[in-house]
Amino acid sequence: MKVEVKQVELAESGADLVAVGLFEDGDLHAAVAAAAGADAVRSDFEKLTILRPDDLPPVLVVGLGERVELDAEKLRVVAALVAKEASRLEASSLAWALPEAPGTTAAAEALVTGTILASYRFDRFKSGDGDEATRLGSLTLLGPAETEDVAAAARIAAEAQNRARDLQLTPANVATPTFLAERAEEIAAGSDSLSVEILGRPELEAKEMGGILAVSQGGPQEPKLIVLRYSGGDPGSALAFVGKGVTFDTGGISLKPGAGMQEMKMDMSGAAAVLEAVSAIAELGLPLDLIALVPTTENMPSGTAIKPGDIITQYNGKTVEVNNTDAEGRLILADALAYAVELGAEKIVDIATLTGAVEIALGSTYAGLVANDDELAAAVSRASEATGELSWRLPLHREYKELMKGTVADLSNLGKKRKAGTITAASFLEEFVGETPWAHLDIAGSAWDIGREYVGNGANGFGVRLLVELARHHSA
């Protein structure tokens, strides 16, 4: 979507539709106050009223509620409502008069983000012309010039999030591990600051990455470990992102129920977030060094699949009893985390659709956050609050580690008791990062079906803007 900032009056915006906000303690914009029906306009939050003043394009008055209660999240919501109304009115261009609260730069970011995310459509696989509704192609913010950089950065991050949604929604017969590797190569080709290395089965076998190899052995798709490196100018402080990339998860021999299994094409949502966050970070030119690792494979049942009770050796040498083949994400992440440490990562954040338990605990509102470092946990929390991709920190304790000890191996991939499933999974992952500061985001409840106005109930690219914001803060 084209995004620009102009310092012009409403009549000079050049847009098909103009949106203006109205606070409970505010006055209607002078340019539309005399329009027919203006006296009936309401300022209640989310209330939309269309006016047709003389000498102006149609004006959508948006209720913003109380000024002191307006924040970035509420602006993302009203931006989404306006974008959907623009589509209904067949407007291909939209202008927004920036409201005064919560500050022009925060308002600019929120309006751009909400508009772009709400305008998302996925119709790649529809025959014919697909959805013929008018697409919103441009957004103009009517506000000060100093918001231009913020609006441009918001566009980059929101479009990256939409690309992650594309990856999530692409079916598993197309979005294979090889497909994700090709996307990583495409991202790397777009920036001189990026390089990529793809480790295939021979390299994984040579490095004895037993987790990735074990999960992959039940299906025909070749596993990959994608390693993207971004060199942005701060080689003394390497940040690492790790994203789970199971392109389809049947559960393996520990087969999942059939109902809803089609959603398991999105078990690579963490990988999608990491890949597209890196693409945005490179486009933004953030001044940091970053390593991104995506272990990717299918998890399929067959005569060659790993069996419950089998023992594997992970990349750092620890042995694991695979007591449930549907607890596969932690096995591939373990290899990638240990490799990130070896590559010199000084801080690691992994993001994964890891446990159903997190949805039971937190629903879709919050992702689960577990960390071995308070400073890094606080940085992730700040980033999630800033972007509206909320996270809630859960505790780590040595007693959780006891639940993950193996009987005849070092570890089990499934807790001995049905307790604290999200935390015990994270405790397992902690075994592979050593003393490196590490944070884990479990997005199994929030990668789709979140229900917010600007992303709906489908795939939402959760984590892309969060990771970009975290990188921005890290590089500051």
- Mean pLDDT across the residues is 96
**Class of secondary structure makeup:** alpha/beta
Low-confidence stretches: none
Output the CATH class name of the largest domain: Alpha Beta
> Beta fraction of the residues?
15-25%
Oligomer: single chain
Kindly report the name of the CATH homologous superfamily of the largest domain: Zn peptidases
Largest sheet, in brief, is: 9 strands, mixed
- What value does the Rg take, in angstroms? 24 Å
Separation of termini?
A: 28 Å
Q: What share of residues is helical? A: 25-40%
Number of domains: 2
Shape: elongated
What does this protein look like?
The chain contains 13 helices and 18 strands. It has 476 residues and is of the alpha/beta class. The protein folds into two domains: 2-142, Leucine Aminopeptidase, subunit E, domain 1, CATH 3.40.220; 158-475, Zn peptidases (Aminopeptidase), CATH 3.40.630. Helix 8 (329-342) packs parallel to helix 12. The chain is elongated, with a radius of gyration of 24 Å. The relative contact order is 0.12.
